[in-house]
Amino acid sequence: MTTMNEPIAKPDIQYDQISGRAIRSLPLYALVPVAFALVFSAAGYPIDWKAFGLGALGWLVALFLRGPVSAIAMKLPQDRARNVVVGSSGVLEEGVRLGLIALASTGASWAVSAGQGWAAVEVLYVMINVVLIASLVKRTDEKAMQAKQFLEAQGTVQAHPLWGVLERIWASAFHVGCTLIVWRYGWSVVLLMPLHSALNLIAVRLAAKRSVPAASAFVAVAGVGTLAVGLLTI
C-alpha cells in the first residue's frame, strides 16, 4: 500500500533500455570533436591547442555565468524558468565569445580552433549529463521520479541517442561558425545573441511540442548555415 507522499514505482524495463542505449552512445559523442578536428586539419586548419583550450575555457565561463540566472529563475514557474535560463544562454555565450576573441585572437586558424574547443567541451558536458541521467532513471525515489517527469515533459527521454549525437554535430558547426563570424565582424555579436537564444528556445520547444527529429532538422539548418557563413569570412 502506498501513501500520497510515497513515489509510485513504475516498471523500469523501458528506462533500463533507455539507459543502456544512452551509455552505449558515448563513444559516438566523443567522435564528434575528433571528426571536426580531422576535417579542419585536412582543410589546412590544424588544431592550435592554446586556442582550443581558450575556447573550452570560454564555454565554461559562460556556463558559470548562467549560475546566477538559474538561481533567480528557480523562483519562477517551471516553464518560465526554463525559458529564462535557455534564453540567457545565447546572450552569455556570445558575450563571452566576443571578449575571448578581443583578448586573444590571432587569426582565422585561431578562431577555428577556439570554436572547436568551445564545441568540444559542450560535447563533454552533454556526455556527463548522459551518464548522470542514465543513473537517475534507474532510481525510484521521489526526487528521481520528479526528474523523470521533467525529462518526459521535454520530449527527449525516449528519443534514440543518435539524435543527441546529430544535435552535437549541428551545435558544433554552429559554434565554429559563430566564432569565425565574431572574429571577422565583432559587431555581429549584436545579431548572434538573439539568434543563439532563439535557436535554443525554438529547439527545446520543437522537441517538447512536436518531435525530436523536427528539432534536429531545425538545429541542422541553423548550425550548417552559420558554419557556411563563418567559412565565407576566412
TrEMBL record:
A Pfam cross-reference name: YhfC
UniProt signal peptide: none
Keyword check for Protease: yes
Bilayer-spanning residue ranges: 26-45, 51-74, 95-112, 118-137, 189-208, 214-233
Keyword terms, alphabetized: Hydrolase, Membrane, Metalloprotease, Protease, Transmembrane, Transmembrane helix
GO molecular function annotation: metallopeptidase activity
Biological process, per Gene Ontology: proteolysis
Protein name (Swiss-Prot/TrEMBL): YhfC family intramembrane metalloprotease
